[in-house]
């Protein structure tokens, strides 16, 4: 099969960053989330003004969840786009939701007796901001601040959403992911090391390392490489995908209990995974090809996410930022006693991924 990338170097490596989670049970946790986010921003090289803006964005978004929903979750992770580092803030809650998002974003709007400038301020300060809310189900908000301002938008830019967390009581997740993109091409990995803890994480880390070295290859070839590489580990379930916008194809190969779904044209298509354990007992690299269209969205997740979700339950969600879908699946379908990874990917035409929040929050 032809290589995914024809000799050019990666444009973006958004590799396997584990999310940092804060349960917003009270206002004190808002301050903790702000401090960690600013620490991420400092390591990314953000200026003093940008760090201040990032702190305000976290405070306003998280404070809004505590104020209106009573609690929520903040998920923080470093991100990279077009070689430019930044910080992503993803907040999800199960509160009353918003019947009219545009009205709730308006300065001066408040149902809690405040000045009503919180989400409006966060939208103005963030380089990217998006929101989805469903009455009686809750709200998801994603904001990003980048080193030097928003990355330049381009046709076909990959938009990645990810949540990766260890089971309660562990510090390292046995689930992981990686994504490497170039203009019009994206390679993706989701891996679930058997069990939990450091041995499962070691298997996932080894898979990510070998994936990153071989992302130019076809998914079936990569899966065979992972099978050989993980023989010395306890093994893993894994799925590898490549999206080629020129051929308009999704190529996919998976072994074990990784769920893959292709969402397009209002339909959901389950992707095929072979039985086995990568590194031990696996059918080598059976690869399938699916059509990829302008409205396609790829979702891949470990068995830490229950597979009963239905996109039609969340009107408008698939048109929002890919991170919001990842966050909602985590919120509504996570298993309490398992590591979690969920990865979402779409390609937007034009300036979609880097557009300002004011263009996407109505």
Topology:
Blueprint: E1 12-14, E2 20-23, H1 27-43, H2 48-69, E3 73-81, E4 84-93, H3 101-105, H4 118-125, E5 128-134, E6 138-146, E7 157-165, E8 175-182, E9 185-193, H5 197-213, H6 219-229, E10 236-244, E11 249-255, E12 259-264, E13 267-270, E14 276-277, E15 281-282, E16 288-291, E17 297-301, H7 322-333, E18 340-348, H8 357-360
Antiparallel strand pairs: 1-8, 2-3, 3-4, 4-6, 5-6, 7-18, 8-9, 9-10, 10-11, 11-16, 12-13, 12-17, 14-15, 17-18
Helix pairs in contact: 1-2, 2-4, 5-6
CATH superfamily of the largest domain: PPM-type phosphatase domain
- What oligomerization state is this entry in? single chain
The description of the largest β-sheet is: 6 strands, antiparallel
Q: Which radius of gyration do the C-alpha atoms yield?
A: 20 Å
Give the SSE order as H and E letters: EEHHEEHHEEEEEHHEEEEEEEEHEH
Description:
With 362 residues, the chain is an alpha+beta fold. It folds into two domains: 20-151, Heat Shock Protein 90 (2-Layer Sandwich); 154-348, PPM-type phosphatase domain (Phosphatase 2c, domain 1). It is built from eight helices and 18 strands. The strands form four sheets. A six-stranded antiparallel β-sheet has the order 1-8-9-10-11-16.
List keywords for this structure.
Phosphatase 2c, domain 1; 5-stranded antiparallel β-sheet; alpha+beta; single chain; 2 domains
Summary, kept brief:
The protein is an alpha+beta fold and 362 residues long. It contains 8 helices and 18 strands. The chain has 2 domains: 20-151, 2-Layer Sandwich (Heat Shock Protein 90), CATH 3.30.565; 154-348, PPM-type phosphatase domain (Phosphatase 2c, domain 1, 4-Layer Sandwich).
């Amino acid at each position: 099969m032809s290589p995914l990338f024809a000799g050019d170097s990666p444009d973006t490596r958004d590799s396997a960053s584990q999310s940092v989670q804060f349960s917003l049970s009270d206002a004190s946790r808002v301050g903790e989330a702000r401090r960690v986010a600013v620490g991420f921003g400092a390591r990314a090289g953000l200026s003093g003004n940008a760090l201040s803006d990032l702190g305000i964005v976290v405070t306003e978004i998280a404070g809004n969840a505590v104020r209106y929903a009573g609690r929520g979750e903040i998920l923080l992770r470093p991100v990279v786009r077009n070689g430019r580092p930044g910080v992503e803030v993803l907040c999800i809650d199960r509160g009353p939701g918003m019947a009219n998002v545009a009205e709730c974003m308006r300065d001066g709007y408040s149902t809690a007796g405040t000045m009503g400038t919180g989400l409006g301020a966060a939208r103005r300060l963030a380089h990217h901001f998006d929101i989805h809310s469903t009455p009686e189900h809750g709200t998801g908000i994603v904001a990003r601040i980048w080193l030097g301002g928003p990355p330049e938008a381009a046709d076909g830019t990959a938009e990645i959403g990810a949540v990766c967390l260890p089971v309660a009581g562990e510090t390292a997740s046995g689930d992981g992911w990686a994504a490497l993109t170039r203009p019009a091409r994206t390679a993706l990995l989701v891996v679930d090391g058997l069990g939990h803890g450091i041995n499962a994480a070691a298997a996932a880390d080894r898979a990510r390392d070998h994936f990153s070295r071989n992302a130019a290859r076809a998914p079936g070839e990569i899966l065979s490489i992972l099978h050989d590489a993980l023989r010395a580990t306890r093994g893993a379930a894994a799925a590898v995908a490549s999206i080629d916008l020129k051929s308009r194809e999704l190529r996919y190969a998976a072994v074990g209990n990784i769920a893959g779904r292709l969402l397009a044209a209002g339909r959901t298509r389950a992707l095929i995974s072979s039985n086995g354990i990568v590194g031990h007992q696996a059918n080598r690299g059976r690869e399938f090809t699916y059509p990829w269209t302008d409205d396609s969205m790829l979702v891949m997740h470990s068995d830490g996410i229950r597979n009963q979700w239905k996109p039609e339950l969340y009107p408008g969600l698939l048109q929002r930022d890919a991170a919001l879908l990842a966050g909602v699946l985590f919120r509504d379908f996570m298993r309490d006693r398992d590591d979690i990874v969920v990865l979402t990917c779409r390609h937007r035409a034009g300036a979609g991924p880097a557009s300002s929040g004011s263009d996407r929050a109505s």
